[in-house]
From TrEMBL:
It comes from Rhodomicrobium vannielii (strain ATCC 17100 / DSM 162 / LMG 4299 / NCIMB 10020 / ATH 3.1.1). Residues 325-442 form the D-3-phosphoglycerate dehydrogenase ASB domain. This is D-3-phosphoglycerate dehydrogenase. One of its GO terms (biological process) is L-serine biosynthetic process. Signal peptide: none annotated. It comes from the Bacteria.
């Protein structure tokens, strides 16, 4: 067997290259390649080790004929097109804890720097101005810190802020009362957090639900004089809205480590008084970089040399023998979880997996992990291995039931989610062509393949809906690939699952909701 080859494309601690070499893997380090240069050479490598700078796009992956694994020395994988990697059978792995303390410390540093205008005071002093009366700060003791996203990093920030004698409140759909109590934080709604916080710090992943969470409307509900810290992802904040609020004096300052477009060479926030920026330095300490480099290199080497998988964000750990039989059902379980997760308004507190027929005799632990990760990946950076543990930590009850063949399908999986207000169940099967299909939505029969872009509607079963929806999509320039229907009973609730060529816009969703008898319209993507 020829030695596997790994490309290190971002600045990693030299510890990573050492490990690859020691384990008999050839390693090249080429930092700063653009998309085209990367696409040109990626075909020569089995592994790609990156941080946040390298964008692993569909185009790069399309040229990556040999690539088996992308290793992210860090947490966020939003610079990797994970669905495209999965579709090409490329494992994407990250190092979920290696830089959490360091990033939390950066958030606290920015908080203190913001409270006392340290960067600006430094610039003025070194320019010989001695403007002692210009830089009046605020004390953080007894001030309220609002943490949005109280996961690994948010929890460490909470701990450190309490050491600074701040009052910590947190919004996180997965934060249980019990965990909040353990952390010594007060669990509040997002609205209450915006209303009460003197400082707000962001620690969520960038998802459909968190994108633009700080916008003109939410800023208007914040206390006058609020200060905002972002060490998570640029897309969480509408930068123009923040700039406007700072200029208007409503927001007293912002400290930003991350930007919507990186590298951020120019930005609407640059140059404003009381804006502090750092170039995505959250994870940049020698300790964190050593941790993540060692871990990612070991994980990648394990996978390339033995096939063992750990901390993969797009695949569960499965032995070499089980893999071929399980693979289509892993995909199905993940898609069903993702479908249900996209339809919930809030984080679930209960997930049930039902396995019927042949699939009940397979490695359902891997399948359950896949389904849980499908549900949770709309909220968290969760991987299939850690999915059940994360669900447990967050107080989500997971139930698995198995039974023999029942009904029309030889084998099927049903995923049921419960939130405080809703229950959603999606069932599916794998046909002999190996393709996963939806066969029931909330027990209503349906027969549809999963597709990258879909629209789901629920309506009262009255004549005219199909025509109206078809006309609306036509008017909006949305091309329909397939149109699948199901209903409870004549005159009851009816559902449509429509495959479209492009993602349906928010405006089209609003128009679909305004159609007669429509009670639900949601965009789905797989
Ligand atoms: N600036 C930097 O250099 C670094 C940035 N990061 C970023 O920090 C973020 C958080 O990382 P971790 O704490 O390790 O992740 P984590 O997965 O442990 O925690 C994220 C938390 O956000 C919560 N969340 C999800 N959706 C939410 C919503 N709509 N509203 C409020 N909370 C929500 C989740 O429940 C979870 O508790 C990630 O985006 C990561 O990419 C991580 C490391 C370094
Ligand atoms: O781990 C993360 O999510 C980070 O954002 C760190 O990014 P970096 O590795 O410093 O480019």
């Amino acid at each position: 067997m020829t030695a596997p080859r790994v490309l290190v494309a971002d600045k990693l601690s030299p510890a990573a290259a050492e490990i690859f070499k020691n384990r008999g893997i050839e390693v090249d380090t080429k930092i700063g390649l653009d998309k085209d240069q990367l696409a040109e050479i990626i075909g020569n490598y089995d592994g790609l080790a990156i941080r946040s700078a390298t964008k692993v796009t569909e185009k790069v992956l399309a040229s990556a004929e040999r690539l088996k694994v992308v290793g992210r020395a860090g947490i966020g994988v939003d610079n990797v097109d994970v669905p495209a990697a999965t579709a090409r059978g490329v494992i994407v792995m990250n190092t979920p804890f290696g830089n959490s303390i360091t990033t939390a410390e950066h958030a606290i540093s920015l908080l203190m720097a913001l409270a006392r205008q340290i960067p600006e005071a430094d610039r003025s002093t070194q320019a010989g101005k001695w403007e002692k009366s210009k830089f009046m700060g605020v004390e953080v003791t007894s001030k309220t810190l609002g943490i949005i996203g109280c996961g690994n990093i948010g929890s460490i920030v909470a701990d450190r802020a309490q050491g600074l004698r701040m009052k910590v409140i947190a919004f996180d759909p997965f934060l249980t009362e019990e965990r909040a109590l353990d952390l010594g934080v007060e669990r509040v709604s997002l609205e209450e957090l915006f209303r009460r916080a003197d400082f707000i710090t962001l620690h969520t992943p960038l998802t459909e639900k968190t994108k633009n969470i700080i916008n003109a409307q939410s800023i208007a509900t914040m206390k006058k004089g609020v200060r905002i810290i972002n060490c998570a992802r640029g897309g969480l904040i509408v930068e123009q809205a923040l700039a406007d609020a700072i200029k208007a004096g409503h927001v007293a300052g912002a400290a930003l480590d991350v930007f919507e477009v990186e590298p951020a060479k120019e930005n609407v926030l640059f140059g404003l008084a009381n804006v502090i920026s750092t170039p995505h330095l959250g994870a940049s300490t020698s300790e964190a970089q050593e941790n993540v480099a060692l871990q990612v290199a070991e994980q990648m080497a394990d996978y390339l040399l033995t096939g063992a998988i750990s901390n993969a964000v797009n695949f569960p750990s499965i032995t070499a023998e089980e893999a071929p039989k399980l693979k289509p059902f892993v995909k199905l379980a993940e898609l069903l979880g993702s479908f249900a997760g996209q339809l919930t308004e809030a984080a679930p507190n209960f997930i049930r997996l039902e396995y019927a027929g042949d699939v009940a005799d397979m490695n359902t632990r891997a399948l359950t992990s896949a389904a849980i990760s499908g549900v949770l990946r709309h909220f968290l950076h969760v991987n299939m291995v850690s999915g059940p543990a994360v669900a447990k930590e967050r107080g989500i009850q997971v139930e698995e039931t198995k039974r023999g063949q029942e009904g029309a399908y030889e084998t099927y999986i049903r995923v049921t989610l419960k939130t405080e207000k809703q229950e959603i169940s999606i069932a599916g099967t794998v046909f002999s062509d190996g393709k996963p299909r939806v066969i029931q939505i909330n027990h209503v029969p349906m027969d549809a393949e999963f597709a990258p872009n879909m629209l789901f509607t629920v309506n009262a079963d009255k004549p005219g809906h199909i025509g109206a929806l078809g006309t609306l999509l036509g008017d909006e320039g949305v091309n329909i690939a397939t149109f699948n229907l199901g209903r409870e009973a004549q005159g009851g609730k009816a559902m449509a699952l429509v495959t479209v060529d492009e993602p349906v816009s928010d405006a089209t969703i609003q128009k679909a909701l305004a159609l007669p008898h429509v009670v639900r319209a949601a965009r789905l993507s797989f």
